[in-house]
Design brief:
The protein is about 35% helix and about 20% strand. By secondary structure, it is α/β, with parallel strands linked by helices. It has one domain: 3-Layer(aba) Sandwich (Rossmann fold). The protein has a nine-stranded mixed sheet with strand order 1-2-3-5-4-6-7-8-9, with helices on both faces. Helix 2 links the parallel strand 4 and strand 5. Helix 3 crosses helix 4. The longest helix has 16 residues. The model has no long low-confidence stretch (mean pLDDT about 95).
């Protein structure tokens, strides 16, 4: 365990709030997974799983409030993203549960987290969390899905994302990053601040798991009946994955989950709800975690 080096693009306030970050590493089948930790290890743990093409920085506005509320906050870079290695044969979300389970067991055995555990997964991380706890129910007592796909519901009017790696200049790439953030992640143009742009650009450059396809399937819908832990959900009102279908999504989740918890819709927010409406999101998450 070492002190984590925080990225330069964080605001001054965030750098101060997250300055006590610990860098933790787990290893399994020759692959390293990098975790960031905040708060005392004896506290109840909340594990935050980031979205596709992301890293732990998807949660920069949520870590400090969770730690201050008494939680041990553990945020991995999922295999193939951020600082974590891409394991051999790991091409989509269905390969992640074994790595998450092995890494988490190592953290518990080394005294880095207590037995009371909640898993919160955003988007791709929500799929990973559902599959993880379906296979290893003993690892946590609660699952919270945030903007998770994989429910078999589609919206034809989604704006397609654009490629950027072939573009010759940072300026041209920035134009595409802005387009993609507004097409998928954010609802209000004012939410696309310098921090969102910088962390998105840094994250997508380190995405080593291309051509993922399972988010367009009904993998989460198939998994919900298998979960033996309470499942709750938080979605932005204008989530681009479910525009016009959010009420239908809520009904489907409540019907299919074997153990249902709570549903929260965050008004005015898009897919990246924990960033765009952090204060409202944090209150909803703390309500679920305290239930």
């Amino acid at each position: 365990m070492n002190a984590a080096v925080l990225p330069d693009f964080l605001t001054r306030d965030l750098r101060q709030a997250l300055a006590d970050a610990q860098r933790l590493e787990t290893h399994w089948q020759g692959a390293r997974m990098v975790w960031h930790g905040w708060g005392a290890a004896h506290r109840p743990s909340v594990v935050l799983l980031h979205g596709g093409s992301g890293s732990w920085t998807h949660w920069v506005h949520n870590i400090d409030p969770l730690r201050d509320a008494g939680w041990r906050v553990l945020v991995p870079d999922l295999p193939g993203f951020g600082d974590s290695d891409l394991p051999s044969g790991c091409t989509d979300v269905d390969a992640l549960p074994a790595h998450l389970h092995a890494g988490f067991q190592q953290l518990q055995q080394s005294g880095q987290c207590a037995d009371e555990v909640s898993v919160v997964g955003f988007s791709f991380g929500g799929m990973a969390g559902a599959l993880w706890l379906a296979e290893h129910a003993q690892d946590a007592q609660r699952l919270v899905l945030v903007g998770a796909p994989g429910m078999g519901l589609t919206v034809p009017e989604r704006i397609p994302l654009k490629g950027w790696r072939h573009l010759p200049t940072p300026e041209a790439q920035e134009v595409v990053h802005r387009h993609n953030l507004m097409a998928l992640m954010l609802q209000n143009p004012n939410s696309l601040d310098d921090l969102a742009l910088s962390l998105h650009a840094a994250n997508v450059a380190r995405d080593r798991m291309p051509r993922r396809r399972m988010s367009s399937t009904d993998i989460v819908a198939q998994t919900l009946p298998q979960l033996q832990v309470p499942v709750s959900a938080i979605y932005g009102e204008h989530d681009a994955l479910y525009k016009g279908r959010l009420p239908e999504l809520q009904v489907a989740m409540q019907r299919q989950a074997a153990h249902w918890g709570q549903w929260h819709t965050v008004a005015g927010a898009g897919h990246w709800v924990q960033y765009e409406a952090a204060q409202t999101f944090n209150a909803a998450l703390l309500e679920i975690l305290g239930a």
